[in-house]
Design a protein that fits this description.
mainly alpha; single chain; TonB-dependent receptor plug domain-containing protein; Plug_dom_sf; elongated; two-stranded antiparallel sheet
C-alpha cells in the first residue's frame, strides 16, 4: 500500500511540475507575441498635443500658457522605459523624484510641474 501511495504522489508531483513549466513557457511566448504587436501598432503614431484649458477652443499660438510638444522620435531617443522618466527628460519643468520622502509616494511617484 505504501508503494502505491508513493507512486501516486510521484505521479501527481510530476504532473504538477510539467503543468507549471508549460504555463511559464507559454506565458513567455504570449508576452513576446504581444510585444511584437505593440511594436507594429506604435509605428503609426501621430503627434499629440495636450492642452489643459476649459475655455473656448484655441490654437497653440493663442494659448496664454506654455505648451510642450513632444514627438515620438524624441521619446524614442531617450532609451528609458518608464513614462515619467521619458517625460522628465523631455520637459524641463517636470520634476519627478526617484526616492520620495512620504510613505504613499513611494508606491506612486508624484510628478511636480513647475514653470
Amino acid at each position: 500500500m505504501k508503494f502505491k501511495n508513493n507512486l501516486l504522489n510521484h505521479a501527481v508531483k510530476l504532473a504538477l511540475t510539467t503543468t507549471t513549466a508549460g504555463l511559464f513557457i507559454s506565458g513567455t511566448a504570449l508576452a513576446a507575441d504581444e510585444q511584437a504587436e505593440v511594436t507594429k501598432v506604435n509605428k503609426n503614431v501621430e503627434k499629440i498635443a495636450v492642452v489643459g484649458t476649459r475655455s473656448a477652443p484655441r490654437s497653440i499660438g493663442d494659448s496664454p500658457v506654455p505648451i510642450d510638444i513632444i514627438g515620438g522620435e524624441e521619446l524614442g531617443k531617450s532609451g528609458n522605459t518608464d513614462m515619467l522618466e521619458l517625460l522628465k527628460g523631455a520637459i524641463p519643468s517636470l520634476n519627478v523624484h526617484s526616492m520620495p520622502i512620504s510613505d504613499a509616494a513611494s508606491l506612486v511617484r508624484p510628478a511636480n510641474l513647475r514653470g
